[in-house]
């Protein structure tokens, strides 16, 4: 280190280690000469500057980092285990509720229907009493159907797209058969990603409303149900050959599509309707699927 032209030299914060202090003397002729007898000295390290301590501190720091990383991994693992346990507990509770509904409420409603039908057949009166008994039977049938839908929604065994397609197909065939309307099915090759109970519930309500509107208002003789999974999405189509209507006019009134849109929006999907007077109606439900889960239908 060079102290410059000063007569006093200061050296601060020197790292520990050996040093030699040398002086050069300048003469009148401008020549610099090294003075004899340089001074040797050594800067003694502080206790924290010893290499063994620094190395130990480094290893200790690495150990702390490794321990912290391991502790974080263990904590994440414990949280994951708790989440899985909670999920398993929820599924067990769903199975229990579905089983109780099926065994207790379902059997009770069936018994109620049988009693009402039996009373109606053996009633001596053909008037008001018979009508009341018939009404009880119809209500019991409706409640039994609702119970079946609740059980289907709750049961985690049905949390798959293939089960959803099978249930929708059976429901459509039964429902349309009561109205003497031909049901045509077009079910593609389906992927089988998990479908949550809430998603199935909203899709079922929208699907039932689409069928109900077709039966009540379209005058159709045939209704097509198409369920497919093109890349990235689930598509459910309900299409009839009925009288149709002006879809643009319905859209301006703000009704008709409201329930469809709300129910599909609750699942992250969309509902579209296409209808022209005299050319039937096509209702399309689109629900996004996880990447890589879908197949072409």
Search tags:
alpha+beta, 297 residues, 6 helices, 9 strands, elongated, Heat Shock Protein 90, 5-stranded mixed β-sheet, two-stranded antiparallel ribbon
Summarize, please.
The chain has 297 residues and is of the alpha+beta class. 52% of the residues lie in helices and 17% in strands. The protein is built from 6 helices and 9 strands, in the order ββββαααβαββααββ.
What does this structure look like?
This protein is α+β, with helices and mostly antiparallel strands and 297 residues long. Among the domains are: 48-79; 161-297, 2-Layer Sandwich (Heat Shock Protein 90), CATH 3.30.565.10. Helices cover 52% and strands 17% of the residues. The protein contains six helices and nine strands. Strand 8 and strand 9 form a beta hairpin. Helix 4 packs antiparallel against helix 6 (258-265). The longest helix is centred in the N-terminal third of the chain and has 72 residues, at 51-122. It is elongated, with a radius of gyration of 41 Å. 16% of the residues are buried. The model has no long low-confidence stretch (mean pLDDT 76).
What's the helix and strand layout?
Layout: E1 17-21, E2 24-26, E3 32-34, E4 39-43, H1 51-122, H2 128-154, H3 161-178, E5 182-187, H4 197-218, E6 222-228, E7 233-240, H5 247-253, H6 258-265, E8 270-275, E9 281-288
Parallel strand pairs: 5-6
Antiparallel strand pairs: 1-4, 2-3, 6-7, 7-9, 8-9
Helix pairs in contact: 1-2, 3-4, 4-6
Strand content: 15-25%
The CATH superfamily of the domain at 161-297 is Histidine kinase-like ATPase, C-terminal domain
Kindly report how far apart the N and C termini lie.
Answer: 81 Å
What's the shape? Answer: elongated
Strand order of the largest sheet: 5-6-7-9-8
The percent of residues in helical segments reads 40-55%
Enter the CATH topology name of the domain at 161-297.
Heat Shock Protein 90
């Amino acid at each position: 280190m060079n102290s410059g032209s000063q007569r006093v030299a200061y050296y601060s914060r020197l790292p520990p280690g050996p040093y030699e202090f040398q002086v050069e003397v300048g003469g009148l002729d401008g020549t610099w000469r090294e003075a004899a007898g340089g001074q040797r000295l050594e800067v003694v390290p502080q206790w924290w500057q010893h290499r063994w301590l620094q190395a130990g501190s480094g290893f200790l720091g690495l150990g702390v980092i490794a321990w912290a990383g391991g502790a974080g991994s263990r904590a994440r693992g414990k949280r994951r285990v708790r989440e899985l346990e909670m999920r398993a507990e929820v599924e067990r509770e769903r199975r229990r509720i579905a089983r109780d509904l099926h065994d207790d409420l379902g059997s009770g409603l069936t018994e109620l229907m049988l009693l009402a039908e039996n009373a109606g057949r053996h009633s001596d009166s053909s008037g008001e009493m018979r009508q009341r008994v018939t009404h009880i039977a119809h209500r019991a049938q409706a409640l039994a159907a609702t119970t079946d839908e609740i059980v289907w929604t709750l049961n985690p065994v049905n949390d798959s797209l293939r089960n959803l397609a099978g249930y929708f197909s059976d429901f459509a065939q039964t429902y349309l058969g009561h109205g003497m309307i031909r049901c045509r099915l077009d079910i593609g090759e389906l992927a089988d990603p998990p479908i949550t109970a809430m998603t199935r519930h909203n899709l079922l309500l929208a699907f039932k409303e689409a069928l109900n509107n077709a039966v009540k208002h379209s005058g159709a003789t045939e209704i097509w149900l198409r369920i497919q999974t093109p890349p990235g999405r689930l598509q459910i189509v309900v299409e009839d050959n009925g009288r149709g209507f002006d879809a643009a006019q319905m859209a301006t009134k703000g009704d008709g599509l409201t329930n469809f849109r709300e129910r599909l929006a609750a699942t992250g999907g969309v509902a579209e309707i296409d209808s022209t007077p005299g050319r039937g109606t096509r209702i399309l439900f689109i629900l996004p699927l996880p990447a890589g889960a879908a197949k072409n239908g």
